[in-house]
Amino acid sequence: MKILVVVTDGYEELEAIGTVAMLRRAKLDVDFCAIDNTEATGRYGVTSKELINLKTVNIDSYDMLVIPGGPEYVLEEKNQDFLAMVMSFFTHDKYIAAICAGPTILGHLGILKGKKYTCFTSMDEDFGGTYVDQYTVRDGKIITGRSCAATVDFSLNIIETLMGKNYAQDVKDSIYYNRG
Which residue of 18, 69, 163, 180 is most buried, as measured by CB atoms within 10 A? Predict the structure, then answer.
């Protein structure tokens, strides 16, 4: 499984970097990309450098797209190439995982219609699905997370989905995570 994590300026550092770290800890193949550059600065001033420029990526080689949250979602929603990429993952029945503000993008694209999902609670709109008051929710190939506080649970949900429950439990045990 090959995973693409995409950010732009304003990304939520904990959601992006924490998820990349957890997925790499699980030995998953993860590429960390910026939309129009090779670096991106998060909402709290942490700059990630030497990222892959999304314009150079062959999205057909990826099995999953991860969309961290943060104020960046506004810039992502204005980027037609990014939106086309999200829709390509959806129409090709590939996994999409989004956390916090990220699911809002999916909702606006109609991807959450008929799905159970979660997102940053105050950003929940009528997306045509069912909002679930949990840290993380999976419905088919769509995985959503509520907020930066849910990053570990969100990452473990991705790991369990791709690698199985026992493997996810081993990763959970390796970080001494005892929540739920």
Answer: 69
Q: What share of the chain is helix, strand, coil (3-state, %, to 5)?
A: 40, 20, 40
| Number of other CB atoms surrounding residue 165 within 10 Å | 11
Residue in 101, 134, 110, 131 with CA at minimum distance from that of residue 12: 101
The CA distance from 165 to 180, in Å, is 14
**DSSP letter assigned to residue 46:** P
**Is pLDDT above 80 for 180?**
no
Q: Is the pLDDT of residue 168 over 80?
A: yes
Among 1, 60, 15, 57, smallest CA distance to 33 is for 57
**Residue 156 confidence (pLDDT):** 98
Q: How far is CA 28 from CA 4, 63, 82, 149, 163, in A?
A: 11, 11, 23, 22, 9
Q: Of 135, 132, 127, give the one whose Cα is nearest residue 156.
A: 135
Mean pLDDT of the chain: 96
pLDDT tens digits for 147-165? 999 999 999 999 999 999 9
